């Protein structure tokens, strides 16, 4: 079966036909007082010998080669010259008072497929917030989400410009995305019950704003190097700082 026929077939097939899980609790109706809210910011770095860069073998699809350019590299590990680690998902894992309620955004977060690579590779979304998945490539893709707590889906996008919208209703960090047509494609989605999360930039920096005063467990997740947690106390109007350092997996 050709790549295009395969994608057309999978367009009609969605896995896990069970009833979707219920939406997350709405909270107790309490709202964060912006006049006393603080923040947690910092930097995630890598210490040690970085793993060798991985070249993506896209030769199976000439449209991917044309879109990605020569010698495309995997984005699974992106380390700045000074050690800053990009694409780390940092979020408040515990400590949020359940009395707080947070409005769920209705604007979708976009996950694109461009140059046969998911872009961005790491996204954060609220539980109940839509995700718009776009095929910007002149070739067929098959979007396959592999959650553990949410509903799995497996849907083809055989033509350029196609869009679909999916929603995860249960908090889950992280949900892995793959493509059944192009095995090197990967993305990860952090589904969070509140707005207190961030993704590190090219320098490894992150900033989580609007936190009510309290003591929190803040977790940093990286797809290759795992998870780290730290406890942080934020006073009224305090701009708290912290940091995470990842090492090669064998040294964690």
Describe the structure.
This protein is mainly beta. Helix content is about 5%, strand content about 40%. It contains 2 helices and 16 strands. The chain has helices at about 5-10, 60-70, and strands at about 40-45, 90-95, 110-115, 115-120, 120-125, 130-135, 140-145, 155, 165, 170-180, 185-190, 195-200, 205-210, 215-220, 225-235, 240-245. The protein has a 5-stranded mixed β-sheet with strand order 5-11-10-7-8. Strands 12-2-14-15 form a 4-stranded antiparallel β-sheet, with no helix packed on it. Strands 4-3-6-9 form a 4-stranded mixed β-sheet, with no helix packed on it. β3 and β4 (about 115-120) form a beta hairpin. The relative contact order is 0.27.
Average pLDDT taken over every residue: 89
* Number of strand segments: 16
Please report which band the strand proportion falls in: under 5%, 5-15%, 15-25%, 25-35%, 35-45% or over 45%: 35-45%
Q: What is the CA-based Rg, rounded?
A: 19 Å
Q: How far is the N terminus from the C terminus?
A: 44 Å
What is the string of SSEs from the N terminus onward? HEHEEEEEEEEEEEEEEE
Spans with pLDDT under 50 lasting ≥5 residues?
1-20
The main pleated sheet reads as: 5 strands, mixed
Number of helices: 2
Helical/strand content category: mainly beta
Tally of domains: 1
CATH A-level architecture: Sandwich
Give the strand order, joined by hyphens, for the main sheet. Answer: 5-11-10-7-8
CATH topology: Immunoglobulin-like
Instruction: Note the overall shape.
Output: globular
Question: How much helix is in the residues?
Answer: under 10%
């Amino acid at each position: 079966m050709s790549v295009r026929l395969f994608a057309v077939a999978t367009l009609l097939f969605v896995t896990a036909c069970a009833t979707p899980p219920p939406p997350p609790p709405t909270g107790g109706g309490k709202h964060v007082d912006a006049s006393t809210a603080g923040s947690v910011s910092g930097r995630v770095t890598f210490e040690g010998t970085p793993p060798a860069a991985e070249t993506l073998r896209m030769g199976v699809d000439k449209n991917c080669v044309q879109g990605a350019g020569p010698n495309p590299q995997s984005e699974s590990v992106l380390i700045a010259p000074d050690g800053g680690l990009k694409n780390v998902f940092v979020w408040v894992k515990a400590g949020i008072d359940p009395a707080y309620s947070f409005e769920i955004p209705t604007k979708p977060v976009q996950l694109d497929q461009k140059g046969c690579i998911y872009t961005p590779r790491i996204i954060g979304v609220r539980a109940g917030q839509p995700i718009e998945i776009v095929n910007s490539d002149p070739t067929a893709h098959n979007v396959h989400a592999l959650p553990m707590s949410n509903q799995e889906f497996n849907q083809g996008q055989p033509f350029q410009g196609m869009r679909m919208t999916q929603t995860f209703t249960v908090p889950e960090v992280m949900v892995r995305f793959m493509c059944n047509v192009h095995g090197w494609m990967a993305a990860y989605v952090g589904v969070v019950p509140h707005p207190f999360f961030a993704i590190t930039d090219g320098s490894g920096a992150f900033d989580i704003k609007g936190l009510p005063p309290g003591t929190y467990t803040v977790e940093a997740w990286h797809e290759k190097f795992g998870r780290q947690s730290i406890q942080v106390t934020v006073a009224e109007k305090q701009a708290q700082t912290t940091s995470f350092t990842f090492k090669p997996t064998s040294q964690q």
